[in-house]
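Ticket reopened. Same input as before:
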Amino acid sequence: MLIFEHSRPGRVNYSQSPLTAASTSNIPKNLQRKTPPLLPEVSEMDTVRHYTRLSQKNFSIDTEFYPLGSCTMKYNPRACNSLAMLPQFTARHPLAPENTGQGYLACMYELQEILKEVTGMAGVSLTPMAGAQGELIGVMMIRAYHESRGDYARNEIIVPDAAHGTNPATAVMCGFKVVEIATDKEGNVDMAALEAAVSPKTAGLMLTNPSTLGVFEKNVSEMSRMVHQAGGLLYYDGANLNAVLGKVKPGDMGFDVIHINLHKTFSTPHGGGGPGSAPVGVAERLLPFIPVPIVAHENGTYRWITEKEKPQSIGRLSAHMGNAGVLLRAYIYVRLLGMEGMHRVAEFATLNANYLMAELRKAGFEIAYPTRRASHEFIVTLRDIKDKTGVTAMNLAKRLLDKGYHAPTTYFPMLVPECLLIEPAETESKETLDAFVVAMKEILTEIQEQPDMVKGAPHEMPLRKLDDVKAARELDLSWKPKS
Amino acid sequence: MPFIPHTKEDIAEMLASIGASTIEELFDEIPKDLISGELTGVPPGLSEMEISRLMMERANADGLFQNFIGAGAYEHHIPAAVWQITTRGEFYSSYTPYQAEASQGTLQLLYEYQTMMASLTGMDVSNASMYDGATALAEAALMAVRSHKSSRRILIPKTVHPVYRKVVRAIVSNQKIDVVELPFCEESGQVLPESLDEFYKEDFAALVIPQPNFFGVLEQVDELTDWAHSKNALAIGVVNPTALALLTPPGEWGSKGADIAVGEGQPLGIPLSSGGPYFGFMACKTNLLRQIPGRIIGRTHDLDNKPGFVLTLQAREQHIRRSKATSNICTNQGLMVTAATIYMALLGPEGLRRVAAQSHANTLNLVEKLEKINGVKRTFSGPIFHEAALTLPTSAKEVLLKLKEKGVLAGLNLQEYYPDIGNTLLVCATETKTAADLQNYADLLAESLS
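Engineering reply: fixed in the latest deploy. New output:
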C-alpha cells in the first residue's frame, strides 16, 4: 500500500507545523499556487508505521550478509552516526563564520592529513560528493594540467574494458574521447594493447587497482612508466582501495590523481544508494588545480582556502564543501581504527576473500581467475553451469535472497560471462562466511536436481521476480489519484 | 582489532584452507617495492568512549547560535520521527536497490518521493535525486543542450545563487558550453523580462529562472518562461521546495510551463550540517524523460501479478551505457531522499504550506522591525518569500561580528558575492523563529548601529 492510499482529506499533524496559517497576502496572486501539491494527509503514527514497515522490506548490512562485489559493504559503526549528529554539528549553517566551526574544521583538516598519509598523495580536497564526482573532478584536473602547459592536443583517456561504467562516462563528460583497452587471460591489463593505445593524444589512463576482476595489476609500475613517458597522467579509481588500505599507497604506484570512496573503504553508510563521498588526492604537480574549499591550519586556527588563494583551481563542484556530514562519519571511523586498525583492513578483507574463494572452489564453483590470489573480492563464473542447465548468474543471485543472503554483484565486469563478483569485507566473521558457503552448496545441488525451481527464484521473498520489461515499456513513474 | 571479529583459531583455520602460512603471503602478487611501511601520520586508534569525548569537546567548541542565515540552506523544524526512521539500519546500511526483490522498501519510498516531487514542481516525472542543488542545475543545463541540439549556450541571471553559477560553469565548460550571465534590475532585485531582448543575439538552449532568487525576491516567472519559449529555448526553474507549497510550480509557469525544475532539497527535513549531505531534486516534462540523468524507479508487477517497484530506464545510465550515458552519476543521495519523503508525509500539504507561510511572515515581520532602525532599508523593492536583502549604514561584516558575540548569526554579507552591492545583509527568518527572537535581533542590531 502506498502512503497516498493511507491519506484522508483534511487530516493534519498539528504538532509538526505552525499552529496558525500565516497570511500570504504580500505574495502577488499571480505567483501563488492554485492547487495544493499531492502530498499525503496521514497521521504521524500511520506515517511512522508505513515507513518502518517499508524499511523491513530491505536487505541491509545491519540485517544480512551483503557480499556485493566492488561495493565494500562493511559494518557501519553506530558511533559514527550518533556523534556526527550531535546538535552542534547538525545545526551549523555552512555559511556560519569559521570561528563558529573550529571543532568541525579541525576534524576536516585532520581527515585531509590522514587521507594524504594513507594514499601517499601531496594534497587532498574533500569536496566530491560521490565516486563519479571524484572521477569528474580528477579528470578535470588532468585536463587543467595539460592546458596550463599549452598542451591542447591531448583529447584521449585510456580506460581498461573491465573498468566501472563511470570511468568512460566521466571521460566523455569532461570532453575526452575514450580509448578502451583489453584485458589479458590472467586478468591484467593487456600491456601490448596499452602500448598501442598511448600516444601524444593521451591525456591520461584511468585505472582501478586491484582491478574490478579482483586481482592486483602486477605491471602497474610499468604502466605508469609508459603513460608518463607519453606525457599522460595516471588516474586511480579508489573503488577498491579497501583491498590495499595500509598495504600499498596509490602515490607509490605512480598515480597523479586519485579518488577515495569513503562510503566503501571508510565505512560511511550506503544509505540505499547514497550519499557517497569521494575526496580526491593529487600529486605535487596537480596541487594548483585542486578544487576548493580546502581546510588550512595556521597558528592554532582552522580556515577555508578558497579560489582567491588557488587561482588555477578547477573551482567549486558543490554549493558548500561536499557531503560534510559524511566526511565527519569517515573522520570518526578513521580515529576509531587508528594506525593499527588501518593496516588490518586490507589484511582481513583479503583473508576473508581468499578464504571464501578457496571454500567455494572446494564446493565445486568455477573461479574466473583460478591462478590468481583474490584481492578483497573475486569472481565466480557460471558459464559451464549455464551451458549445462540453463541456470544463470541472476537465477543464482535471486535464489540467494531466498536463503537470507544479499546477492553478489552480477554481470559486472561484463567481460566475464555469467559472473558473480563476491566481496565479503573484513568485518564478517568466519561463521558467516561458512554459512554462506553452505547456502551456495545447497543452491548448487538445487541447480542439478531442480533447475527450473532455481530459475523461478526468488520464492521466499515478499515478491517473486519482478517484470523489468513491463516497467520500462509501460512507464509508471508516479502515483496518480483515481479520478 | 576494531570491527574485525577473527579469533586466532579462525585465522589459522582460514589460512590452512587457503594453503597459505601467513596473511602476508596473500599479498605475494604485489611487487615488494610497493608495500608501504607504517602509517606514522595516522594517530593510534581510540575506543568509542574516547572518540565520543573528543567529538563532544569539538561540538561544544562550535556551540549553538540563533541562525538568521539562509542563502541556499534553511533551518526548519525537523520532526523527530524523520531521522529516527531514516537511520534505521535497513535504510541506513542498505545499498543501491539493484536487487529489486530485496529492496522493495527503498524502491517504494523512492516511487513515493518521485510522486511528491513531481506534484510539488508541477512536472510529469522526477528522478530519484542528484548530489545537491548546484549540480542538479548543472545537469539540467547539460540536458537542455542535449535536447536543443544546435545551441551550446545557457543564459543564467545573476540573481541565481552565485556558487551555483560557479558550479554550472565548472561542469558544463568541459563540454564547450557557454554560460552567459544576465544582469538584474538594481531597484527591484529581479530580472526584467522586458530587458531580455537586448541579450538575445544568438540562439540559446535554455534560460535559468530562480524562484525565489538569491536575494529572496520573487521573479516574474510567467513572462520569463514565455520569453525563453518564444526563442525556441527551454526554461529551467531553480526553486525552493518549501516555497512550492505556496508558489506556482514551475510546471505551470507561463503559457506552457517550464521544462525542467531543479533545486536544493535540504529544506525538506535535512539538517544544515555545515553544508551536507543534502540532495538535489530534478523533475521534467515527459518529452525530456530520455535525457534525464540519474536513477528512476518504476512500478511494475511480479510473476504473481503483485505490484512492486524496480529501477527502470537504466539504458540511460553509466553502468549500462558507459561512454554514451546521459551522465556519469551513479551514487546519489538516497538516504537524504528517505528523510525528505518522511518529512513531506508528516507535514502534508497543509503543514508544508504553514511552514512556508510562517517563514514568509516571520521574515516580513523581521524586515519591518529592522527597517525602523535608522539607516536600515530594504535593498530591493520586489516581493519576497522568506529572505530579504537589507542595506545597512555601516559595514555588514562588522555588524555580523558584533551580533555573533551576542549569540546571533545575523545573516550573510552579500558584498562577498556581489562586490558592488554596498553594505548589504541577506537575512532569513524561518518558522523556527519566535516573535521574541525577531525582537532580540532587532534590538541587537539597533544597539550595534548606535
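Chain A touches chain B through 195 residues (CB under 8 Å). The two ends of chain A are 18 Å apart (CA to CA). Please confirm and we'll close it.
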